[in-house]
Design goal:
This protein has 2 domains: 231 residues, Response regulator (Rossmann fold, 3-Layer(aba) Sandwich); 142 residues, Rossmann fold (3-Layer(aba) Sandwich), CATH 3.40.50. The N terminus is likely disordered. The protein has 12 helices and 19 strands. Helix 4 runs parallel beside helix 5 and helix 11 packs across helix 12. It is of the alpha/beta class. 38% of the residues lie in helices and 21% in strands.
Length: 405
């Protein structure tokens, strides 16, 4: 994807921008049955759709959002009648070992296709299993290249049956650099704080730094942290401030980002903060003063304030059911279900087909079809599973995400 051309000129006009099946934290959105009622009241066989994500633990904001959206999408697809899904979604607690266990539960339950995992490290752990068993999977938000490549470092050994609805980490990094170059009003002296022992964070940082150097961004400071040091950011913030940074790029998840925002406020340091999809979750983090997130920018494929009917309907239904605005993780999950349904329908697939047959149909459809969803129009996928769609920037204003343009 050529983000330089895509984002050039200011991203005009809104930037045309993944246990036990019966446990309390897992289950089926429409019941663990082999058939579902169609629109005419008859029973139709259902495709078994699996997946896992963190419904407990520190990343539960992401997993819960994905699961909520999956249930909405499955109910809507089932109500339409052409395609029926039986959803089984397991809690992996953002833990690779638990994700492997969850995969076994899903496979034993007859999973025929999957939304893979919500986060990247569990996705990287189970992608080889999906590859070995030849089960089609598309992750809503596992953005690491390790989810789709056996050799992520060299972008080699594509699994071929593992796809992404979200942007890859490298694409997020380069797109962020180009956006900041085109929006110098946000800040011209840039600091970066990233998590060096996390695939998501380090992957984005690597491509951000390379693109920043190529296009002439002034990166005045780069600081890192690890899981063991993710509570005190005073050193990184002090050094960024001393370097004159008026913008801090945070290619990290919302939990450490909330501490950085809190600690920066405590020391009277108020640069512009800019991040990627990992920051989505700040506004629902328990115990965090959301006023500190005011003015935070994110590059994302989804804006909840978009005015198209499909987005408005999704956002309203999500708000009515769960009492909050869906984040981009939820939106990507919603699109995963509808994209799979479109591919199954176009490929004349039936639930009685073998997994090999279904995977063949889904891969052929995804690598040839165009899909319009709430996270983008005219989406396409490469043979390696990477999505092409336009990013947009959002900013937090008055406690909600709004389009930045």
């Amino acid at each position: 994807m050529n983000y330089r051309n895509l984002l050039k000129g200011g991203l005009a006009a809104a930037m045309a921008f993944t246990m036990a099946a019966c446990s309390s934290n897992s289950g089926s959105a429409s019941g663990s049955t082999d058939s579902q009622p169609s629109s005419d009241g008859s029973e139709k066989a259902a495709f078994k759709l699996g997946g896992s994500g963190p419904l407990t633990g520190g990343a539960a904001v992401y997993g819960t959002a994905v699961y909520n959206a999956l249930k909405i999408a499955v109910d809507e697809v089932n109500a339409a009648g052409d395609i029926q899904f039986d959803l089984n979604f397991q809690d992996d607690a953002h833990d690779p070992e638990k994700a492997v266990t969850a995969y076994g539960v899903l496979k034993d339950g007859g999973m025929q296709m999957s939304v893979l995992t919500v986060t990247s490290s569990p996705g990287a752990a189970v992608a080889p299993l999906y590859d070995e068993d030849n089960i089609f999977a598309i992750t809503p938000s596992g953005s690491s290249l390790a989810v789709i490549y056996a050799d992520a470092a060299n972008k080699a050994g594509s699994y071929g049956n593992c796809f992404q609805m979200c942007f890859t980490d490298p694409n997020q990094g380069s797109a962020s650099a180009v956006y900041l170059k085109d929006h110098a009003d946000l800040g011209t002296k840039i600091a970066v704080i990233f998590k060096s022992d996390d695939n998501y964070s380090s992957g984005i940082n690597d491509t951000f730094q390379a693109e920043a150097k190529d296009i002439g961004l002034d990166v005045v400071y780069t600081g890192s942290f690890t899981e063991d040091s993710a509570t005190d950011f005073s050193v990184q913030l002090t050094q960024a401030k001393d370097a004159g940074a008026d913008l801090i790029f945070l290619p990290i998840y919302y939990d450490p980002a909330s501490l950085i925002l809190t600690q920066a406020n405590g020391m009277g340091y108020a640069p512009t903060f800019f991040g990627c999809d990992g920051l989505d979750g700040l506004l629902t983090l328990e115990g965090f003063d959301t006023a500190l997130a005011e003015g935070v920018y994110m590059l994302t494929p989804f804006s909840a304030d978009a005015t198209d009917d499909r987005t408005k309907n999704f956002v309203k239904k999500y708000q009515d059911l769960y009492g909050e605005t869906p984040n981009q993780f939820a939106a990507d999950a919603y699109d995963c279900v509808f994209a799979i349904a479109q591919a199954l329908k176009n490929g004349n697939a039936t639930p009685d087909m073998s997994t090999d047959e279904l995977t063949d149909i889904l891969v052929k459809q995804f690598t040839s079809m165009t899909y319009d969803g709430v996270t983008g129009e005219s989406m396409t996928w490469s043979e390696t599973g990477e999505v092409t769609k336009a990013p947009m920037a959002v900013v937090i204003k008055d406690g909600v995400y709004v389009g930045a343009e």
